[in-house]
Amino acid sequence: MSLLSLDKLTVRRGVCPVVDGVSFTVQPGEFVGLIGPNGAGKTSLLRGALGLLPHEGRSSLSALPAAARARAAAFMPQGREIAWPVTVETLVALGRSGQPEDGTAVEEALRRMALQGYRGRKATALSGGEQARVLIARVLAQETPLVLADEPVAGLDPEAQIRTMQVFAGLAAEGRSVIASIHDLGLAARHCSRLLLLHRGQLIADGTPAEVLTDQLLADAFGIKGFHAMTPEGPVFQPTEVLR
Protein backbone atom coordinates (compact mmCIF):
# COMPACT_ATOMS: atom_id res chain seq x y z
CA MET A 1 0.00 0.00 0.00
CA SER A 2 1.47 3.36 -1.02
CA LEU A 3 1.97 6.08 1.59
CA LEU A 4 1.66 8.86 -0.99
CA SER A 5 0.18 8.81 -4.48
CA LEU A 6 0.12 11.79 -6.83
CA ASP A 7 -1.73 11.71 -10.12
CA LYS A 8 -1.05 14.64 -12.47
CA LEU A 9 -0.62 17.06 -9.57
CA THR A 10 -0.53 20.64 -10.84
CA VAL A 11 0.04 23.76 -8.76
CA ARG A 12 -0.28 27.16 -10.40
CA ARG A 13 1.03 30.61 -9.63
CA GLY A 14 -1.54 32.71 -11.42
CA VAL A 15 -2.06 30.92 -14.73
CA CYS A 16 1.48 29.51 -14.85
CA PRO A 17 2.04 25.97 -13.52
CA VAL A 18 4.91 25.75 -11.04
CA VAL A 19 4.20 22.02 -10.66
CA ASP A 20 3.05 20.57 -13.95
CA GLY A 21 1.23 17.23 -14.06
CA VAL A 22 3.50 15.31 -11.65
CA SER A 23 2.65 11.68 -10.89
CA PHE A 24 4.44 9.21 -8.62
CA THR A 25 3.88 6.97 -5.60
CA VAL A 26 5.91 6.46 -2.44
CA GLN A 27 5.96 3.01 -0.89
CA PRO A 28 6.85 2.02 2.68
CA GLY A 29 10.59 1.78 3.23
CA GLU A 30 11.70 4.50 0.82
CA PHE A 31 13.89 7.53 1.44
CA VAL A 32 13.07 9.76 -1.52
CA GLY A 33 15.18 12.78 -2.32
CA LEU A 34 13.36 15.53 -4.21
CA ILE A 35 16.00 17.39 -6.19
CA GLY A 36 16.10 20.11 -8.82
CA PRO A 37 17.40 23.63 -9.35
CA ASN A 38 15.99 26.67 -7.56
CA GLY A 39 12.48 27.38 -8.82
CA ALA A 40 11.94 23.83 -10.04
CA GLY A 41 8.78 23.46 -7.92
CA LYS A 42 10.00 21.30 -5.04
CA THR A 43 8.38 23.29 -2.22
CA SER A 44 5.15 23.77 -4.18
CA LEU A 45 4.99 20.02 -4.85
CA LEU A 46 5.34 19.13 -1.17
CA ARG A 47 2.81 21.72 -0.08
CA GLY A 48 0.40 20.80 -2.87
CA ALA A 49 0.67 17.11 -1.98
CA LEU A 50 -0.35 17.97 1.59
CA GLY A 51 -3.25 20.14 0.44
CA LEU A 52 -1.59 23.31 1.73
CA LEU A 53 -1.79 24.91 -1.72
CA PRO A 54 -4.66 24.85 -4.21
CA HIS A 55 -3.96 22.20 -6.82
CA GLU A 56 -5.35 20.23 -9.70
CA GLY A 57 -5.01 16.49 -10.10
CA ARG A 58 -5.06 14.08 -7.18
CA SER A 59 -3.03 13.63 -4.01
CA SER A 60 -3.87 10.77 -1.69
CA LEU A 61 -2.87 12.93 1.29
CA SER A 62 -4.81 16.07 0.46
CA ALA A 63 -7.91 13.93 -0.07
CA LEU A 64 -7.85 12.91 3.61
CA PRO A 65 -9.66 14.78 6.39
CA ALA A 66 -7.28 16.99 8.38
CA ALA A 67 -7.09 14.68 11.40
CA ALA A 68 -6.40 11.61 9.27
CA ARG A 69 -3.80 13.52 7.26
CA ALA A 70 -1.97 14.48 10.48
CA ARG A 71 -1.83 10.81 11.46
CA ALA A 72 -0.61 9.81 8.00
CA ALA A 73 2.14 12.36 7.41
CA ALA A 74 4.34 14.81 9.31
CA PHE A 75 5.62 17.93 7.57
CA MET A 76 8.70 20.03 8.21
CA PRO A 77 8.49 23.29 6.22
CA GLN A 78 11.43 25.48 5.25
CA GLY A 79 10.52 28.14 7.81
CA ARG A 80 12.28 27.42 11.09
CA GLU A 81 11.29 30.31 13.30
CA ILE A 82 10.49 29.24 16.85
CA ALA A 83 8.28 31.87 18.43
CA TRP A 84 7.73 30.50 21.93
CA PRO A 85 10.44 30.39 24.64
CA VAL A 86 9.58 26.84 25.66
CA THR A 87 12.05 24.11 26.48
CA VAL A 88 13.37 21.79 23.82
CA GLU A 89 11.57 18.84 25.40
CA THR A 90 8.26 20.73 25.44
CA LEU A 91 8.64 21.77 21.81
CA VAL A 92 9.46 18.23 20.68
CA ALA A 93 6.46 16.95 22.64
CA LEU A 94 4.22 19.25 20.56
CA GLY A 95 4.70 16.68 17.82
CA ARG A 96 2.39 14.51 19.91
CA SER A 97 -0.41 17.11 19.78
CA GLY A 98 -3.71 15.34 19.30
CA GLN A 99 -2.13 11.97 20.02
CA PRO A 100 -1.80 9.98 23.24
CA GLU A 101 0.92 11.17 25.62
CA ASP A 102 4.05 9.16 24.86
CA GLY A 103 7.26 10.10 26.64
CA THR A 104 9.01 7.23 24.88
CA ALA A 105 8.37 8.78 21.47
CA VAL A 106 9.71 12.14 22.63
CA GLU A 107 12.77 10.54 24.22
CA GLU A 108 13.51 8.56 21.07
CA ALA A 109 13.21 11.69 18.92
CA LEU A 110 15.64 13.54 21.20
CA ARG A 111 18.05 10.61 21.04
CA ARG A 112 17.92 10.33 17.26
CA MET A 113 18.85 14.00 16.87
CA ALA A 114 21.44 13.94 19.70
CA LEU A 115 19.44 16.44 21.78
CA GLN A 116 19.25 14.67 25.14
CA GLY A 117 21.50 17.28 26.71
CA TYR A 118 19.35 20.11 25.37
CA ARG A 119 15.99 19.03 26.83
CA GLY A 120 15.80 21.74 29.49
CA ARG A 121 17.15 24.59 27.39
CA LYS A 122 14.91 27.27 25.89
CA ALA A 123 14.49 26.53 22.19
CA THR A 124 14.60 30.22 21.31
CA ALA A 125 18.10 30.49 22.84
CA LEU A 126 19.60 27.92 20.47
CA SER A 127 21.48 28.57 17.26
CA GLY A 128 19.66 28.31 13.94
CA GLY A 129 21.15 24.89 13.23
CA GLU A 130 20.25 23.62 16.70
CA GLN A 131 16.70 24.88 16.28
CA ALA A 132 16.47 22.99 12.99
CA ARG A 133 17.48 19.78 14.76
CA VAL A 134 14.78 20.40 17.40
CA LEU A 135 12.13 20.88 14.71
CA ILE A 136 13.22 17.65 13.02
CA ALA A 137 12.89 15.90 16.38
CA ARG A 138 9.36 17.30 16.74
CA VAL A 139 8.47 15.76 13.37
CA LEU A 140 10.00 12.43 14.42
CA ALA A 141 7.99 12.44 17.66
CA GLN A 142 4.80 12.51 15.59
CA GLU A 143 5.58 8.88 14.58
CA THR A 144 3.75 9.04 11.27
CA PRO A 145 4.27 6.46 8.51
CA LEU A 146 5.39 9.26 6.17
CA VAL A 147 7.59 12.32 6.73
CA LEU A 148 7.76 15.21 4.26
CA ALA A 149 10.62 17.64 4.84
CA ASP A 150 11.43 20.78 2.87
CA GLU A 151 15.21 21.36 2.84
CA PRO A 152 15.73 19.75 6.26
CA VAL A 153 19.55 19.88 6.11
CA ALA A 154 19.90 23.45 4.83
CA GLY A 155 22.07 25.49 7.19
CA LEU A 156 23.19 22.51 9.29
CA ASP A 157 26.85 21.77 9.91
CA PRO A 158 28.30 18.62 8.26
CA GLU A 159 27.85 16.42 11.33
CA ALA A 160 24.21 17.41 11.71
CA GLN A 161 23.58 17.02 7.97
CA ILE A 162 24.93 13.48 7.96
CA ARG A 163 23.11 12.60 11.19
CA THR A 164 19.81 13.87 9.78
CA MET A 165 20.22 11.93 6.55
CA GLN A 166 21.13 8.80 8.51
CA VAL A 167 18.07 9.26 10.72
CA PHE A 168 15.83 9.53 7.67
CA ALA A 169 17.44 6.47 6.08
CA GLY A 170 16.91 4.66 9.37
CA LEU A 171 13.20 5.50 9.33
CA ALA A 172 12.99 3.98 5.86
CA ALA A 173 14.81 0.86 7.05
CA GLU A 174 12.14 0.55 9.77
CA GLY A 175 9.39 0.57 7.13
CA ARG A 176 8.40 4.23 7.31
CA SER A 177 9.08 6.59 4.39
CA VAL A 178 10.61 10.03 3.94
CA ILE A 179 10.42 12.44 1.02
CA ALA A 180 12.73 15.41 1.44
CA SER A 181 13.76 18.24 -0.85
CA ILE A 182 17.55 18.39 -0.91
CA HIS A 183 19.96 20.75 -2.64
CA ASP A 184 23.13 18.88 -1.69
CA LEU A 185 23.37 16.25 -4.43
CA GLY A 186 26.25 14.52 -2.66
CA LEU A 187 24.13 13.88 0.43
CA ALA A 188 21.21 12.80 -1.75
CA ALA A 189 23.37 10.35 -3.68
CA ARG A 190 24.85 8.91 -0.52
CA HIS A 191 21.75 8.41 1.59
CA CYS A 192 18.56 8.36 -0.53
CA SER A 193 17.23 5.13 -2.00
CA ARG A 194 15.43 7.03 -4.75
CA LEU A 195 15.60 10.45 -6.37
CA LEU A 196 12.92 12.50 -8.09
CA LEU A 197 14.34 15.20 -10.37
CA LEU A 198 12.14 18.23 -11.02
CA HIS A 199 12.90 20.73 -13.76
CA ARG A 200 10.61 23.65 -14.60
CA GLY A 201 7.80 22.03 -12.64
CA GLN A 202 7.99 18.69 -14.42
CA LEU A 203 9.26 15.35 -13.18
CA ILE A 204 12.03 14.48 -15.65
CA ALA A 205 13.63 11.53 -13.84
CA ASP A 206 12.67 9.01 -11.17
CA GLY A 207 15.03 6.26 -10.06
CA THR A 208 18.05 5.33 -8.01
CA PRO A 209 20.76 7.96 -7.53
CA ALA A 210 22.88 6.24 -10.18
CA GLU A 211 19.98 6.36 -12.63
CA VAL A 212 19.15 10.03 -11.98
CA LEU A 213 22.55 11.68 -11.49
CA THR A 214 23.71 10.98 -15.03
CA ASP A 215 25.84 13.34 -17.10
CA GLN A 216 22.94 14.11 -19.42
CA LEU A 217 20.34 14.78 -16.71
CA LEU A 218 22.78 16.89 -14.69
CA ALA A 219 23.49 18.96 -17.79
CA ASP A 220 19.81 19.29 -18.70
CA ALA A 221 18.51 20.24 -15.25
CA PHE A 222 21.44 21.97 -13.53
CA GLY A 223 23.88 22.82 -16.30
CA ILE A 224 26.72 21.06 -14.47
CA LYS A 225 29.08 18.13 -14.67
CA GLY A 226 29.85 15.92 -11.70
CA PHE A 227 32.27 13.33 -10.36
CA HIS A 228 30.93 9.89 -9.43
CA ALA A 229 32.64 7.16 -7.43
CA MET A 230 31.66 4.05 -5.53
CA THR A 231 33.34 3.50 -2.17
CA PRO A 232 32.98 0.74 0.45
CA GLU A 233 30.80 3.19 2.41
CA GLY A 234 28.52 3.90 -0.55
CA PRO A 235 28.27 6.20 -3.58
CA VAL A 236 30.01 9.57 -3.73
CA PHE A 237 28.95 12.46 -5.96
CA GLN A 238 30.48 15.90 -6.26
CA PRO A 239 29.47 18.65 -8.72
CA THR A 240 32.64 19.80 -10.46
CA GLU A 241 31.94 22.15 -13.38
CA VAL A 242 29.39 24.64 -14.72
CA LEU A 243 28.54 24.01 -18.36
CA ARG A 244 26.45 27.05 -19.23
Automatic annotation (TrEMBL):
Keywords: ATP-binding, Nucleotide-binding. Residues 4-225 form the ABC transporter domain. It comes from the Bacteria. One of its GO terms (molecular function) is ATP binding. Gene3D superfamilies: P-loop containing nucleotide triphosphate hydrolases. Pfam families: ABC_tran. InterPro entries: AAA+_ATPase, ABC_transporter-like_ATP-bd, ABC_transporter-like_CS, P-loop_NTPase. PANTHER family: ABC TRANSPORTER ATP-BINDING PROTEIN (PTHR42794:SF2), HEMIN IMPORT ATP-BINDING PROTEIN HMUV (PTHR42794). This is ABC transporter ATP-binding protein. It comes from Pseudogemmobacter lacusdianii.
